[in-house]
Amino acid sequence: MEFNTIDPIGGELPEQRPSRFRSGKLRRGVYLLPTFFTVANMMCGYYAILSAFEGHISDFDNAAIAIGVAFLFDSLDGRVARAMGTHSDFGKELDSLADIISFGIAPAVLAYAWGVRAAAIANSPGGVHLAQAGWVVGFFYLACCGWRLARFNIQGMAPSDKRYFAGMPTPLAACMVASIVHFTGGMPIQDVGPSVLWLLLLMALGVIMTSTVRYYSFKDVQWTRKQPSLAILLLSLLVGLVVYFSKPTLLILAGVYVLQGVVFHFVRSVRHRMASRHA
Question: pTM score, two decimals?
Answer without folding.
Answer: 0.84
